[in-house]
Specification:
- It is a single chain.
- This protein is α+β, with helices and mostly antiparallel strands.
- It contains 26 helices and 29 strands.
- Strands 20, 21, 22, 23, 24, 27, 28 and 29 form an eight-stranded antiparallel beta sheet that branches. Strands 1, 2, 3, 4, 8, 15 and 16 form a seven-stranded parallel beta sheet that branches.
- Helix 7 crosses helix 8.
- It is globular, with a radius of gyration of 30 Å.
- The chain starts with 6 loop residues before the first strand and ends with a strand.
- Bound molecules: 5'-O-[(L-methionyl)-sulphamoyl]adenosine (MSP).
- The site of 5'-O-[(L-methionyl)-sulphamoyl]adenosine has 20 residues, from strand 2, helix 1, helix 9 and strand 15.
Length: 849
């Protein structure tokens, strides 16, 4: 592969080996793998790095507790991490190491290559005058491996756990010299920090924890005084004007280049060695000390790609990949990545060389920026936490969920593979001997007489891994905290993957297989649905609902979506929006099929029906091809299966050939013969949640919980339908008015009230009153915005059957289309809504008369 290709080097944090992996760790690694796959399909020479952080007091203590030497302890836990990433297809030893497109590595801080690199960096810093020896007395938080600025006996301000007083001779790094250069780099965006909340926290730390509210008032006060006096006010004048007092005010505040206030000298030098324990990398030249575990760990990002090596091939690798394009980190470790790490790297600049004890030479901001371009990571992006039972998943809280549980349980749903010996490529039934599978008809087709091949354990792992990948990225806005629950995992899986994507694929391909076994021809122009009610162009009368059933609508929706993914959502890591939109597109294609009923067209003898059949099936399958290509980085195993079934071969190969990036409509060649068909995502029984819960805590296992036991019904309060809940955030439900004007039966008949089930319910950023609902009407899925956010928790609504006004004209709110209204009674309690529902089991789409 030519070296001239653009490179993309991205990293995960390296995981402490004091505890075994849980899905919180998997979350960071999955996100990184998704991004890596995305860059690979763009043709970038992508290097994915993860690993384990094995030194430090915390690991040493855990090993002592386990009664084994720290190296042995680290070997075992590090093996658990790398083994898990292999099971999930994130690391793959079978891939050629010579193929630069497939580069991925797992670094351990106990690797010889890493130790050598850390010592090399230490010497460079020392030679530049950035390190000095002093003594330190202060508080240390062992769980966070961090020095904290609190009084003796106080708890850690970050994690709340007790701190320990240490008095040691330590080496210090001159962090204080880099306050302004760091502020300049982050404020100017040269060092990109995302999300803004993280960026602001880091800036606040670098500015000296300048009171944010006071900081906000400064610019307005400054403008006011400037206008009043005609000259720029001093910082003291502004402070006096807005009445800053006492601890809030630092009289010596200055401005950064971007004009923001900071307190010079508030960033203190950093202790970077320890002497009270030995489990670490010895400081070169003074082996009484070991390198501070964070300095040790951060350097992994460079030592893994050859920093500090004498080998020319390793040096070339370093030159090719450094600086890193992206460090993905958890939100609690951004200070280490956005302040300490860039400062260490800035301090390597030979222009800053000075004798220990002398002041650091002053260089211009442009000179710092120039060095930063070659040495500092380009971007640091923080993910939020995965919460379980309301708090951050962690070993010490005992609220962890192991990824292995999900792989083992969900893996049992992995569908059998099509039997390649089978002569007719009809879809195979998803029901199998496995009791966790609930039976369901996969498509309009008959089952093969050949027995399907059961999946192997590695295939089951990859299948389940896709489910977890999809769930985590679909459920949690990247950068924010999100809650994990087994129920939500199953609900989301069934809604989006089994009933949504998997069903659409099986349905469409089954029909193509039955009617065009030799390959589907391409419809002729103008690509418009010929049904009378459908949109035919600008001059035709357009009715919103009818237009949505047209071929043109599906084409433009799918291609616009592909463009938005490329231009907006992938580059900014907005996975949740991307996947929510993808699910919506899938439901539109589903509705398109339901509207045109290709199974009836197939039975009609006339040419017109045949023509329509080709158009409808080609449109659906081409949309599937594009949506599958977009889904590939998130669900590589399932999409590989779909790609084969589409007759397009190996999806990894397609990714390498650039076939997954420029997704133009019409790319599916006429006559493409489908591959053997098989189910994609069989429906999961709700009982699987209990199985996973039991697997997590065997002691509390309920013997009566069987794989097929139904999930408890959601609470369904019954209320009479007295009003229709307005979806407008500004117009909460009015109390029922007894003096309502009389209407005729014909008037009432115009209102199409239907039963629908809520599949998705989520809050909308910056819209306190609105919830975004995705509802299933049986015959189609809809998005509805409902003004009930103040009264209903989104999670509590999922699965609930409600009544909606189905024929209400769609309207746009907050940039989102709302198609219908949810019906609710308006209670006297300030108009609090109570959603209408039924005691009886009602089928979806049932009409209310
Ligand atoms: N070893 C350091 C990182 C050094 S990087 C040079 C460390 N290790 S850690 O194991 O404690 O955490 C590693 C990553 O896992 C962090 O990004 C952290 O946020 C992430 N997670 C650990 N638990 C998590 C959740 N419950 N949810 C999301 N991410 C979580 O810090």
């Amino acid at each position: 592969m030519a070296d001239s290709k653009k490179t993309f080097f991205l990293t995960t944090p390296i995981y402490y080996v004091n505890a075994r992996p849980h899905i919180g760790h998997a979350y960071s690694t999955i996100a990184a793998d998704v991004i890596a796959r995305r860059h690979r399909l763009l043709g970038h020479n992508t290097f994915f790095l993860t690993g384990t952080d094995e030194h430090g007091q915390k690991v040493q203590r855990s090993a002592e507790k386990a009664g084994i030497p720290p190296q042995q302890f680290a070997d075992e836990v590090s093996g658990a991490f790398s083994g898990l990433w292999r099971r999930m297809g994130i690391l793959d030893d079978t891939l050629s190491k010579d193929d630069p497109l497939l580069h991925r590595d797992f670094i351990r801080t106990t690797d010889a290559r890493h130790k050598r690199g850390v010592q090399h960096l230490w010497r460079q810093l020392e030679a530049n005058g950035a390190i000095y020896l002093s003594s330190y007395t202060g508080q240390y938080c062992v769980p966070d491996e961090a020095f904290v600025d609190v009084p003796v006996g106080a708890d850690c301000p970050e994690c709340g756990r007790p701190t320990e007083t240490i008095t040691e001779e330590n080496y210090f790094f001159r962090l204080s010299d880099f306050q302004l250069p760091l502020l300049d780099l982050i404020e100017s965006g040269q060092l990109h920090v995302q999300p803004d909340t993280t960026k602001n926290e880091v800036l606040s730390f670098l500015r000296g924890n300048w009171m944010p509210e006071i900081h906000k008032q400064f610019p307005a006060a400054e403008k006011h005084l400037w206008d009043l006096n005609g000259s720029r006010p001093t910082v003291e004048e502004i402070a006096q004007f807005i009445g800053c007092a006492g601890s809030e005010w630092h009289g010596d505040a200055k401005r950064s280049r971007a004009g923001n206030f900071y307190i010079p000298g508030s960033l203190k030098d950093l202790s970077i060695s320890r002497t009270s324990f030995t489990w670490g990398i010895p400081v070169p030249g003074n082996e009484k000390h070991v390198v501070y575990v964070w300095l040790d760990a951060l350097v992994n990002y460079m030592t893994a790609i050859g920093y500090g090596s004498d080998d020319p091939a390793e040096q070339a690798k370093f030159a090719r990949y450094w600086p890193a394009d992206l460090h993905l980190v958890g939100k609690e470790i951004t200070r280490f990545h956005c302040a300490y790490w860039p400062a260490f790297l800035l301090a390597l600049n030979p222009k800053l060389k000075h004798a220990a004890g002398e002041p650091m030479p002053r260089i211009t901001p442009a000179e710092h920026a120039e060095w930063a371009k070659q040495w500092l990571p380009k971007s640091i992006v923080a993910n939020g936490w995965l919460l379980f039972e309301e708090s951050k998943m962690s070993k010490s809280r005992g609220n962890i969920v192991r990824t292995e549980t999900i792989l083992d349980a969900f893996g049992t749903l992995c569908p059998p593979k099509p039997n390649l010996l089978s002569s007719n490529n009809v879809p195979l039934s998803s029901s199998s001997s496995n009791s966790l599978l609930s039976s369901r008809s996969e498509a309009e087709g008959s089952a093969s007489s050949e027995p399907p091949q059961p999946p192997t354990k590695p295939e089951q792992d990859l299948f389940a891994s896709d489910v977890l990948r999809y769930f985590l990225l679909r459920e949690i806005p990247f950068g924010q905290d999100g809650t994990f629950s087994f129920d939500a995992l199953i609900t989301r899986y069934n809604a989006d993957l089994a009933n949504g994507y998997g069903n659409l694929v099986s349905r469409t391909l089954g029909l193509i297989q039955q009617n065009f076994a030799d390959g589907l021809t391409k419809p002729s122009a103008p690509w418009l649905c010929q049904d009378r009610d459908c949109w035919r162009g600008d001059n035709a009368p357009t009715k919103e609902f009818e237009a949505r059933s047209g071929t043109h609508f599906i084409i433009s929706e799918t291609t616009n979506f592909a463009e938005l993914c490329n231009e907006q959502w992938w580059p900014t890591y907005r996975f949740q929006i991307l996947l929510a939109e993808l699910a919506l597109k899938i439901s539109h294609v589903d509705a398109y099929l339901s509207f045109h009923k290709p199974w009836l067209l197939a039975k009609a003898p006339d040419d017109e029906s045949k023509r329509k059949l080709i158009e409808v099936l080609y449109t659906a399958v081409e949309a599937i091809r594009i949506l599958t290509a977009i889904l590939y980085p998130v669900a590589p195993f399932a999409t590989a299966s779909v790609w084969r079934q589409l007759g397009l071969g190996d999806i990894e190969e397609a990714a390498r050939n650039g076939e997954l990036k420029d997704l133009k409509w019409g790319g599916l060649k006429p006559g493409t013969k489908l591959g053997p068909l098989s189910p994609i995502f069989p429906r999961a029984d709700k009982g699987l949640a209990q199985i996973m819960i039991d697997m997590e805590s065997p002691a509390s296992a309920t013997p009566e919980a069987t794989p097929t036991s139904p999930a408890p019904e959601t609470d369904q309060s019954v209320s009479s339908v007295t009003s229709v809940l307005s979806p407008s955030p500004d117009a909460p439900a009015e109390p029922a008015k007894p003096e309502s004007p009389t209407i005729t039966i014909d008037d009432f008949a115009k209102v199409d009230l239907r039963v629908a089930q809520i599949l998705v319910a989520e809050r909308i950023p910056k819209a306190d009153k609105l919830l975004r609902l995705e509802v299933d009407l049986g015959y189609e899925k809809r998005q509805i915005l409902a003004g009930i956010a103040e009264y209903y928790q989104p999670e509590a609504l999922i699965g609930r059957k409600v009544v909606i006004v189905a024929n209400l004209a769609p309207r746009k709110m907050r940039g989102l289309i709302s198609q219908g209204m949810v019906v609710a009674a308006s209670l006297e309690d300030h108009g609090r809504p109570a959603l209408a529902s039924f005691i009886e089991e009602i089928e979806l789409g049932a009409r209310l008369h």
